[in-house]
Amino acid sequence: MAGSETQTSAEYIKHHLTNLTFGNHPEHGWGVAHSSAEAAEMGFWAIHLDTMFFSILLGGLFLYFFHKVGKAATSGVPDTAQNMVEAIVGFVQDNVHNTACERNPLVAPLALTIFVWVFLMNLMDLIPIDLVPWLASLIGIHFLKIVPTTDPNATFGMSLMIFGLIIYYSIKVKGVGGFAGELTLHPFGKWGMPANLLLEGINLVAKPISLSLRLFGNLYAGEMIFILIALMYGGGMVLGISGGVLQFVWAVFHVLIITLQAFIFMVLTIVYLDMAHQESH
Amino acid sequence: MNINVTIFGQMLSFAVFVWFTMKFIWPPIVKALEERKTKIAEGLAAAERGQHEQELAEKRAKESLHEAKRQAAEIKHNAEKQAALIVEEARDKAKEEGHRQMLVAQAEIEQETNKAREVLRAKVGELAVLGAEKILRKEIDANAHRDIVESVARQI
Questions:
Q1: Confidence class for position A225, pLDDT limits 50, 70, 90
Q2: Do B9 and A70 touch (CB under 8 A)?
């Protein structure tokens, strides 16, 4: 839709799946990549400006709004904003309640941050797919992905932090020996140590990977469908109208997905940290 | 779709967000929630206490009403008894008074009778003397015969 006349469908899709990458290109030096190939050539030491910008913007919005409400929070009659914030906080509290990590002052705020932040990042998916990139193209930005959670860097970044917390609290609560024992002495007893380590190791490593890939996969697929629907706008009157209908239907369905994925990410984080806090297996 | 240094940027911003939430957002909201919880609990307790007190007061009011009724009945009963007593007394007194008056009247009557008798006696004496005078046609010394006349009169 926003693409120029000469753009093919494949180019349109590829264009939408390319981040605004800043890095050191072996030939062109420091700068913003002009194509996805160029971005790939920049290697590891490149940064996705769009992912960083939108995730920090949304995180900042979350912090600003919640902090403002928190500062004015009264135990008397709450206003609408406080009501909403309290509902979310109460929801998170309910989920943290009765877990082994309930006493840990980090877990509940962590869960709140994850839920709201991931929800806001997912919510960007509902903004018409070409709107923001088109506006950005007016000021000379050629690539823009506005949904940070469709960038695996964002989801893996979060899940790796959570992975770090799982290991930190496992060792803190159970001790190095206890944690090592948990990894090697189940489920086959001490004679099956290598097999145990393999199984438990996979189990442990699968946590951050499944956590991030689930979120990434759902949002990536969702965005892909939005892109494919957007392609229909170029196909004439009938296709265009049915595309509009489809876009609406998918957006409505997507509301469920983005909320659900934020919720799943939060709940699994709590569950993993709960397991890390439990003494016995 | 490349994994690159963005991942560290995301980790860092995530850590900062979580830290900020933990430090500045979570505590005041949870505090407000807890405070409201205690407030509501206190309010409910106060309401319950108030209701209990009201019940007690109602009970007390009923009791005092009952007591007042009982007292009123007692007073009425006493009054009736006293009234009966007064009436009885009055009747007795009246009877006594009547009796007394009757006695007085009787005494008076007797006195009057006696007095009349005396007068009559005197008169009869005089008459007897006069009669005797006439009969005897002879002047009788009234003084000398008074004794006789009086004895005659007394015999009447």
A1: very high
A2: no
